[in-house]
Amino acid sequence: MIPLHGHWWNWWEPVYSLFHGFFPVIVGGGGALGGQTLWQKLRQRRAAGWPSADGEVQSVTVRHKNGYTVVVQYRYFARSEYHYGRYSRHFRRKPQAELFAEALRGRHIQVRYQEDKPAVSVVLDHDLRMTGALQIG
User: Fold this and answer.
1) Residues 43-67: pLDDT tens digits?
2) Beta carbons within 10 angstroms of residue 122's beta carbon
3) What pLDDT, in 10s, does the model give residues 12-41?
4) Does the chain have fewer CB atoms within 10 Å around its N or its C terminus?
């Protein structure tokens, strides 16, 4: 229980000393994931109006580092050429990551590409939901 008298650091100092070493790691890791998620959302919003192509999932891997990241590599045909792209999604738990990975293996997905630079592509979360692959998370 926090004492009502005295100074606030009487109870804060033990808490601070316990978490002092872990705080930068916790904040830095959370900030990196939050920044990556924000960047991905901004890219998706911008790409929503781009033309789309049928993409073929080439490989799906699950990586373990600060949770689980599913990396999807795909191929699509745009402007008379094949192009390759990559989509990644972070999960906290392994079962959800593995379910998502399994749902995408061997599938065809919709890929948005930049009209004047068809090698620049984005896979929208909305399009994955429409195919049923993104029912998790």
Assistant:
1) 889 899 999 999 999 999 999 989 9
2) 20
3) 455 444 444 544 444 445 555 556 678 778
4) N
Quickly count: other Cβ atoms within 10 Å of residue 78's Cβ: 20
Give residue for tokens 């998370």.
Answer: 137
- Confirm whether 96 is domain-assigned: yes
Residue 10 in any domain: the answer is no
Residue percentage of the chain with pLDDT more than 90: 55
With respect to residue 68, please indicate whether it lies within any of the assigned structural domains: yes
* The token pair that represents 73 in the structure block: 């590599």
**Residues counted in the chain:** 137
Burial class of residue 9 (count of CB atoms within 10 Å of its CB; 0-12, 13-18, 19+): exposed
Is the residue at 137 inside a domain? no
How many separate domains does the chain show? 1
Tokens representing 119 are: 């090698």
Handedness of CA 111, 113, 115, 119 (dihedral sign): negative
Range(s) of the domain holding residue 110? 29-131
Alpha carbons 44 and 88: distance in angstroms, whole number: 13
